[in-house]
Amino acid sequence: MKVRKINQNNIEIAMIDSEEILIKDGSSALDFFATVQYDSGCDRFVLKQSHFTGDFFDLKSKIAGEVLQKIVNYRMKLAIVGDFSIYSSKSLNDFIYEMNTGKDVFFVKTEKEATDHLSNV
């Protein structure tokens, strides 16, 4: 795993590059975000859809809620980059829509969209 720090609008953002699944559940998420925050000094993160276990996108598993609640509780910000149109679940699409109207978690198509959102909240 590699962490690239970028600065946009005087906000430091950690861009995560990895070929591995990094977020498997709430516990692994908290460990991951705390470690990256400590090492990089960033509290805003960009991860790819592929960094999350497939169950994250199945709301019945409750992994998404558990992980994203940790983001909010610890006052961090997260953008997830990917193609979410592959999911046909209405509840997931509604969840993504709701997250994108907030200020903590964003589901976007490009890294540029991710950094734009994270540097303006």
Briefly characterize the structure.
The protein is of the alpha/beta class. The chain is built from four helices and five strands; from the N terminus they run ββαβαβαβα. Helix 1 runs parallel beside helix 2 (63-73).
Describe this structure in words.
The structure is a single chain. By secondary structure, the protein is α/β, with parallel strands linked by helices. The protein has one domain: Transcription Regulator spoIIAA, CATH 3.30.750. It is 37% helix and 23% strand. A 5-stranded mixed beta sheet has the order 1-2-3-4-5, with helices on both faces. Strand 3, helix 2 and strand 4 form a beta-alpha-beta unit. It is globular, with a radius of gyration of 13 Å. The two termini are 26 Å apart. The mean pLDDT is 96.
Which descriptors apply to this entry?
single chain, 121 residues, alpha/beta, Transcription Regulator spoIIAA, five-stranded mixed sheet, 4 helices, DUF4180, PF13788 domain protein
- In N-to-C order, the SSE pattern is EEHEHEHEH
Under CATH at level 1, the class stands as Alpha Beta
Largest sheet: 5 strands, mixed
Spatially, the strands of the biggest sheet line up as: 1-2-3-4-5
> Structural class of the helix and strand makeup?
alpha/beta
List how many beta strands DSSP finds: 5
Strand content: 15-25%
Count of separate DSSP helical elements = 4
Radius of gyration: 13 Å
Q: Could you say how many structural domains there are in total? A: 1
What is the 3D form?
globular
Examine the secondary-structure arrangement and name the CATH architecture: 2-Layer Sandwich
